[in-house]
Protein backbone atom coordinates (compact mmCIF):
# COMPACT_ATOMS: atom_id res chain seq x y z
CA UNK A 1 0.00 0.00 0.00
CA UNK A 2 1.29 3.42 -0.91
CA UNK A 3 2.25 5.77 1.90
CA UNK A 4 0.93 9.30 2.06
CA UNK A 5 2.50 11.41 -0.66
CA UNK A 6 4.06 8.38 -2.33
CA UNK A 7 3.60 8.05 -6.09
CA UNK A 8 1.85 4.88 -7.23
CA UNK A 9 3.80 3.39 -10.11
CA UNK A 10 2.38 1.23 -12.83
CA UNK A 11 4.25 -0.73 -15.45
CA UNK A 12 3.16 -1.76 -18.93
CA UNK A 13 2.57 -5.44 -19.71
CA UNK A 14 5.53 -5.25 -22.13
CA UNK A 15 7.82 -4.01 -19.35
CA UNK A 16 6.66 -6.81 -17.07
CA UNK A 17 7.03 -9.37 -19.88
CA UNK A 18 10.63 -8.25 -20.35
CA UNK A 19 11.39 -8.81 -16.67
CA UNK A 20 9.68 -12.21 -16.69
CA UNK A 21 11.56 -13.26 -19.83
CA UNK A 22 14.87 -12.25 -18.22
CA UNK A 23 14.04 -14.48 -15.26
CA UNK A 24 12.59 -17.50 -17.06
CA UNK A 25 14.63 -17.59 -20.28
CA UNK A 26 17.92 -15.97 -19.30
CA UNK A 27 17.90 -17.47 -15.78
CA UNK A 28 18.91 -14.19 -14.21
CA UNK A 29 18.46 -13.44 -10.51
CA UNK A 30 15.53 -11.40 -9.23
CA UNK A 31 17.74 -8.76 -7.65
CA UNK A 32 19.90 -8.27 -10.76
CA UNK A 33 16.78 -7.89 -12.94
CA UNK A 34 15.28 -5.36 -10.53
CA UNK A 35 18.53 -3.41 -10.43
CA UNK A 36 18.92 -3.36 -14.23
CA UNK A 37 15.31 -2.27 -14.77
CA UNK A 38 15.43 0.34 -12.01
CA UNK A 39 12.80 -1.28 -9.81
CA UNK A 40 12.75 -0.39 -6.13
CA UNK A 41 12.53 -4.04 -5.08
CA UNK A 42 13.02 -7.53 -6.48
CA UNK A 43 9.55 -8.46 -5.23
CA UNK A 44 8.06 -6.72 -8.28
CA UNK A 45 9.75 -9.27 -10.54
CA UNK A 46 8.84 -12.13 -8.21
CA UNK A 47 5.16 -11.08 -8.26
CA UNK A 48 5.13 -10.72 -12.06
CA UNK A 49 6.72 -14.13 -12.59
CA UNK A 50 4.17 -15.76 -10.31
CA UNK A 51 1.28 -13.98 -12.05
CA UNK A 52 2.63 -15.01 -15.46
CA UNK A 53 3.03 -18.63 -14.40
CA UNK A 54 -0.51 -18.75 -13.00
CA UNK A 55 -2.42 -16.73 -15.62
CA UNK A 56 -0.12 -16.27 -18.59
CA UNK A 57 -0.15 -12.93 -20.44
CA UNK A 58 -3.40 -11.95 -18.69
CA UNK A 59 -1.57 -12.03 -15.36
CA UNK A 60 0.70 -9.19 -16.50
CA UNK A 61 -2.15 -6.79 -17.21
CA UNK A 62 -3.16 -4.17 -14.65
CA UNK A 63 -6.67 -4.84 -13.37
CA UNK A 64 -6.82 -2.24 -10.63
CA UNK A 65 -10.11 -0.39 -10.57
CA UNK A 66 -11.73 -2.65 -13.12
CA UNK A 67 -14.53 -4.83 -11.93
CA UNK A 68 -14.95 -8.10 -13.78
CA UNK A 69 -18.65 -8.13 -13.00
CA UNK A 70 -20.14 -4.68 -12.60
CA UNK A 71 -23.52 -5.94 -11.48
CA UNK A 72 -22.52 -8.08 -8.53
CA UNK A 73 -25.46 -8.27 -6.20
CA UNK A 74 -26.11 -10.47 -3.26
CA UNK A 75 -28.90 -13.04 -3.50
CA UNK A 76 -30.84 -11.00 -0.94
CA UNK A 77 -30.60 -7.86 -3.11
CA UNK A 78 -31.76 -9.84 -6.16
CA UNK A 79 -34.76 -11.24 -4.31
CA UNK A 80 -35.65 -7.79 -2.99
CA UNK A 81 -35.47 -6.37 -6.51
CA UNK A 82 -37.68 -9.17 -7.82
CA UNK A 83 -40.16 -8.55 -5.01
CA UNK A 84 -40.14 -4.84 -5.78
CA UNK A 85 -40.95 -5.53 -9.45
CA UNK A 86 -43.75 -7.87 -8.44
CA UNK A 87 -45.27 -5.28 -6.09
CA UNK A 88 -45.08 -2.58 -8.77
CA UNK A 89 -46.89 -4.85 -11.23
CA UNK A 90 -49.58 -5.62 -8.64
CA UNK A 91 -50.05 -1.90 -7.92
CA UNK A 92 -50.45 -1.13 -11.63
CA UNK A 93 -53.01 -3.92 -11.96
CA UNK A 94 -55.00 -2.66 -8.97
CA UNK A 95 -54.92 0.93 -10.30
CA UNK A 96 -56.35 -0.23 -13.61
CA UNK A 97 -59.12 -2.17 -11.84
CA UNK A 98 -60.02 0.88 -9.75
CA UNK A 99 -60.03 3.12 -12.84
CA UNK A 100 -62.38 0.68 -14.59
CA UNK A 101 -64.73 0.93 -11.61
CA UNK A 102 -64.74 4.70 -11.93
CA UNK A 103 -62.36 5.62 -9.13
CA UNK A 104 -60.07 8.61 -9.54
CA UNK A 105 -56.58 7.13 -9.11
CA UNK A 106 -53.54 9.44 -9.20
CA UNK A 107 -50.72 8.38 -11.56
CA UNK A 108 -47.22 8.55 -10.17
From TrEMBL:
UniProt cross-references to InterPro entries, sorted A to Z: Homeodomain-like_sf, IS150/IS1296_orfA-like, Transposase_8
Alphabetized GO MF terms: DNA binding; transposase activity
A Gene Ontology biological process term: DNA transposition
Classification via Gene3D superfamilies: Homeodomain-like
Pfam families linked to this entry: HTH_Tnp_1 (PF01527)
Compositionally biased spans, kind Basic residues: 63-75
Domain of life of the source: Bacteria
Protein name according to UniProt: Transposase and inactivated derivatives
Region (Disordered): 56-83
Amino acid sequence: MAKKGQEIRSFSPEYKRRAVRMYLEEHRGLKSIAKELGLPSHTYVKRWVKAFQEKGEEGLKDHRGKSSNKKRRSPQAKSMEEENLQLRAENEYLKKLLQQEGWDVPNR
